[in-house]
Design brief:
The chain is mainly beta and 284 residues long. The protein has one domain. Helix content is 11%, strand content 50%. Strands 7-6-5-4-3-2-1-13-12-11-10-9-8 form a 13-stranded antiparallel β-sheet, sandwiched between helices. Strand 4 and strand 5 form a beta hairpin. The N and C termini lie far apart (40 Å).
Length: 284
Amino acid sequence: MRSFWCHAVLLATLLHYSTSLPAALAEDSTGPKTRVVVGYRIDLDSFNLGSFWFTTTLSGSDYRVQGAGHFSILGGLLYDLRTTTASSGKVTSAGPEPTTYMLSYAGGGDSGQLRMTFDTGAITALSIIPRRVRDPREIPVRKDQLVGALDPIAAAFFRARSNDPNGDLKVCDQTVPVFDGEWRYDLELAPKRKVPVRKQASTAYARYAVICRVRFKPISGYAPDDPNIKVMAFTDDIEVWLVPLSGTDMYVPYHLQLPTDSGLLSVTSTTLRIEGNPQAKPSP
């Protein structure tokens, strides 16, 4: 369970934190509500594993993100997993300030839930059900390592923005500190190249995609010989493709890939819809 789930969490993190808020929404605390709905298909090599949907509601500087996913093998005969996640907080000129984060899963005879609360950049409460026995070899998470760390969804709202509709490689210059309730790690982005993306009816993407290399840098909360850590920490093949969203200075994920010990895990956008903001239109 942990082997698959750790990769799914990392993918969700990459999906979310690669998105930045429109500048006006991040600064205005009285603006109208805007909803961004994004759907993704998840594959392991040539096998479809399922899909994930994220709905982000923006109301002035306040945000709330809700996600739901369904993963299965052979129609659920071999494996069936359902997940939900949510995050809320406020976006300031200095970046996101999360207040709550939740993640739950059920499937394969296993279920659990994780909850975190924050206050002014500090984690004030952490609940994991069921509690698991910690591996004595794990590197302990220190309090100072959690200062300024974001939950996997709050990492969606980094400060970099660009009004370049043709693919600005500078959006890849990011390092994001993340704590998922167990692991404390950094996600380090660096620009690779940009490529044209063909228009598709379901997403209306028709411009350049910026390809960022992503390095997974573990810090604490893990055992040094954990095979999942080794696969993600020592690969240079993690990529996220970002495309500009017309009418905003947002760059949203179009495609990403992550090598695993079971094959290449990939995520591709299938749907993008924006509601409520007349200046933010999904069509180019």
